[in-house]
Amino acid sequence: MLRAEGTTGVQTHVRELRRFLEATGSPVTLVTPFSWGRMLAYPVFGFRVVLKRNPALSVAWYRRWHEAFLRKALARHLAGAGDCVIYAQGPLEARAALHARSGPHQRIVMAVHYRISQADEWCNTASGSIKRDGIVFRGIRRAERATIPRVDGIVYVSDWARQALLTWLTEAAAVPSAVIGNFIMPLDQAAPAPGQRPEPRRDLVSTGGLDIAKNHRFLLEVLAEAAKRGRSLTLDVYGEGPLRRDLQEKARSLGLEGQVRLRGFRPDVRDFLPGYRVYVHPSYTETSSLAIMEAMYAGLPIVAAPVGGLPELLDDGVEGRFWDLGDPARAAATLLELLDDEEEWHAASRAARERFTREFDAAVVVPRLGSFLRGTTDPDAAWLIPAGSACFARPFAIDPRVR
To answer: Comparing C-alpha atoms, which of 222, 207, 218, 336 is closest to residue 284?
Structure first.
C-alpha cells in the first residue's frame, strides 16, 4: 500500500526480499497504488491533506483510494499472470487482491506486520488518531474479519503477532500459516551501499521514525540520568517523523544539545552502524524489528525492552540487555553496566552477529518464506517473487517473459 521506498518496516521487508531475489537472478515486479494512474493518483491521494483536521475522515480517504488504485494495478498485472502467488503486505492489500485475481489458481498469502489489528495502528499516532471503537476503527476491524479468513495463507513475522491477531480474530486460526521472521540481506551479498565510511566510534545509535510509538523521548531521559552519574554519552538517531521538533526541544531542556544528533532518514544507515558501541531501542511495542537485525549484523550489542516480539530476537545477557521503559534511572544503570564491562560488551557483540547469521540472514529465511508462499515443503524449489503491496511468485516453468 506504500511507496516503493521509505522508512517503514514493511518497506524494508519488501526491499530486502527484492534484493535477495535480484541477487539470485529472479525477476521482480513491484505493485503499489502508484503502479496505476500515476497522474491521477497525486491529486486524489493529495486531497487527504485537506482532511487532516478530521483524522478519521483522513484515514478513511487514504484507505479507500489507495485500495482502489492498487486493485486496478493488480487487475492489470494478474490478467495475464496465470498460476501465481500474490504476497499481500496487509489486510487491505489482500482484499484488493481478492477482488483483482482471476480465480483461486492465483494464490493469496498475507503478511502480518502489524500489532493486533490495523485499526490499532491508526490509534495514538502523532499525525492524528482515529477514535478507538469509533466508526472508522470498527470499519477496519469489520473489513479484516471479512478478508483475513478468505486468504490462502498467512505469514506472521513473529509468534507474538500471531497470538495478538488470534486474540480477537479466532477465525484466522483456520487459515494455513507460518511464523517466519524478518530478514536482512547482508551488504557483502548485495550492491554496495552509497555514502561515507563510518565516523569514529560514538556511544549510542537508534533508528526508526520519530513518532510516539518509537518513544525516543525515553532515550533523552536515559542520557540525562547518565549525566547525573557523571557520564556524557553521545546518541545519534536515524529517522524522520512528526516529533523531530519535540525531540529537539526536549534535548535542549535537558542540556543534551552537544550529545544528541538527529541524523534524519538515511537509506545507507547500515554503513554507519559499525561506528557505534551499542544499539538502543526504546519502542513501547514491536511486532518485530528490522532495525535490531541490522544492528546485530553490524555486531552491536542491543539494549531494548522485552515487549511485543522483541524477546524472540534476543536474550537478556546474551546479545545485549533488556531495560525498563518505566524507569529511566534504572535503564541508565543497565546501559552503563554494559558499556563499562568490556568482556560482556565483546561477548554480546559476537553473540549478536552469530544470531544474525543463524536466524536473520536472508539466505536462511527467504527459502522458507518462498516454500510457504508456493504452498510446498521444499525450500530449495525454484521460485520467483516480487513484492511491495503484492508479490507474484511463479515457477520457472511458466514463460519467464510474463512478469
So the answer is: 218
Integer Cα distance of 271 and 375 in angstroms? 36
pLDDT: which is higher, 381 or 115: 115
Would the pLDDT of 205 be above 80?
A: yes
**Assigned CATH topology for domain 9-183+361-393:** Rossmann fold (3.40.50)
Q: For the whole model, what pTM was predicted?
A: 0.87
pLDDT at 200: 54
CA–CA distances in Å: residue 60 to residues 18, 129, 130, 277: 30, 12, 10, 43
Cell numbers found for residue 263: 541524523
Question: What is the end-to-end Cα distance of the chain in Å, rounded?
Answer: 20
Please answer whether residues 99 and 92 qualify as being in contact, where contact means their C-beta atoms are separated by less than 8 angstroms: no
Architecture per CATH, domain 196-358, reads as 3-Layer(aba) Sandwich (3.40)
Work out the average pLDDT over 14-39. 86
Q: List the grid coordinates of 236.
A: 545519534
Residue 266: which residues within 8 A CB-CB, separation 6 or more?
195, 238, 272
Domain borders along the chain are 9-183+361-393, 196-358
- The gap from C-alpha 252 to its chain's centroid, in whole angstroms, comes to 30
**Domain 9-183+361-393 identical in fold to domain 196-358:** yes
Model confidence over 350-371: pLDDT tens digits?
A: 999 999 999 999 999 999 999 9
